[in-house]
Design a protein that fits this description.
- The structure is a single chain.
- The protein is α+β, with helices and mostly antiparallel strands.
- Helix content is 28%, strand content 21%.
- The strands form six sheets. The chain has a four-stranded antiparallel β-sheet with strand order 7-8-9-10, with helices on both faces. Strands 11-12-14-13 form a four-stranded mixed β-sheet.
Length: 417
């Protein structure tokens, strides 16, 4: 047994020495003489292309391995904001048919026919700044430098936040263009929905109001995975739900009214010219878009719910009546009393048939006519700390006899006439 092993070992040494002398290339051909027979062993080396997952997978599949989260991970709450790596568009600024050699390819990056001539394939002069421009474009989209400052007129309710800002007019529908329209964002937030298959699904929710500042306005709500798409869908939805409100003298509402939407209530008061807008910031934005310039509004209940606040205000505007409509409905004359005219009665509207009898239970006070029995909450004034001081009581006693003398004077003059 041992002698056979030594014989085989010496045989292979002899074959290896012969191969060196013959200068055979390794792993190509080896000839061995055994029992007067020639046998040839040939190892053929096949050329292989270098293959990896970079060559077999698409860009989306490769980026999903870095930036995506599995379904099981989404169900457990992974993949929140900041935990996932952002995608980088390496093809940004590059177009099909364009490269280092600036070529014109008809049908690919240019027209086939220009006028009556056929465009020929040709080479244009190279752009030496092409690589630098591409790098600058890629870095510009992902840089975390300082943002550009907005002008004070373009800012929203709170600095650079989108609510309160102008996002332009709605997109044209066919041949009609919304010239003179303005769209303001009332609410912009990120909403999340937990689904069984996709896990936590996030979308942007945008609530806007649009109008032409001349009595025409509407609001819209839209959601989309992208913020810009949500804004665009919302303002186009608002453009399709326009409502026209006739304004009193082109600057205010026709009368005071009360409206409630779920847990949000709104008390609106008509004001004279030059009063301004004293109300919630969402109602102020709506008034600016519609064209209301003078108004006082008080919101009660859930004042942070902008959508309910907007719906309540729009419902109140839609239910408004003009003075003539009110006179025709009640069958009475509508009389206006103004403080600057010493409450001199002015007939504003007259019905076709005026009734002569009015019941005592009927409340015809104009300010309470549309309140539906509701009264707004007025916070009581806090008493001053010096109310019980001796000097203050002495001053009140001295000025008490002059109290209400202005109105008493007017009543005496009326009796004398």
């Amino acid at each position: 047994m041992f002698s056979r092993f030594l014989a085989k070992r010496s045989f292979f040494r002899h074959v290896a020495s012969d191969a060196k002398k013959a200068k055979f290339p390794s792993k190509k051909c080896l000839s061995v003489v055994l029992n007067k027979q020639v046998t040839c062993h040939t190892d053929v080396i096949q050329t292989r292309h270098s293959s990896s997952f970079f060559t077999h997978l698409s860009a989306d599949e490769i980026w999903s391995g870095v930036s995506a989260v599995s379904r099981a991970g989404k169900k457990r709450g992974r993949g929140k904001r900041g935990d996932v790596r952002k995608r980088v568009d390496l093809n940004k600024g590059q177009f099909i048919g364009e490269g280092k050699s600036n070529m014109v390819w008809p049908g690919l990056n240019s027209h086939i026919i220009k006028g009556r001539e056929l465009v020929q394939q040709q080479k244009l002069p190279e752009n030496p700044d092409r690589e630098a421009d591409l790098i600058m474009l890629r870095e510009k989209g992902h840089s975390r430098g300082k943002r550009e400052k907005l002008s004070p007129l373009d800012r929203g309710w709170s600095g650079r936040r989108l609510p309160g800002q102008t996002v332009g007019s709605p997109d044209p529908i066919g041949d009609y263009k919304f010239t003179g329209f303005d769209t303001r964002v009332l609410e912009y937030k990120l909403v999340t929905n937990m689904t069984g298959n996709q896990g936590r699904k996030q979308r942007f929710s945008c609530f806007v109001v649009t109008g032409n500042r001349n009595g025409l306005g509407g609001f819209g709500l839209a959601k989309a995975p992208n913020g810009k798409a949500a804004v665009r869908k919302a303002k186009n939805t608002a453009a399709q739900k326009m409502q026209y409100f006739e304004l009193c003298d082109g600057h205010t509402v026709w009368h005071n009214f009360y409206e409630k939407e779920e847990q949000t209530a709104v008390f609106v008061k008509k004001k004279e010219k030059g009063y301004g807008l004293v109300c919630h910031r969402a109602i102020k934005t709506i008034c600016e878009v519609i064209g209301i310039k003078d108004l006082h509004a008080k919101a009660e209940g859930s004042t942070k719910n902008v959508q309910r606040l907007t719906k309540a205000f729009f419902n109140g505007l839609r239910k408004m009546e003009t003075h003539q409509q009110l006179a025709d409905r009640l069958g009475l004359n509508v009389v206006e009393l103004r403080k600057e005219m010493d409450n001199y009665p002015i007939v504003v509207a007259q019905p076709e048939k005026c009734r002569t009898e009015v019941s005592a239970e009927e409340d015809l006070e104009f300010n309470r006519l549309y309140y539906g029995g509701k009264v707004e909450y007025v916070r009581p004034k806090s008493k001053p700390f010096f109310e019980n001081f001796h000097a203050h009581r002495k001053k009140v006693n001295l000025t008490l006899r002059f109290r209400n003398q202005y109105w008493a004077k007017i009543q005496r003059q009326a009796l004398m006439e």
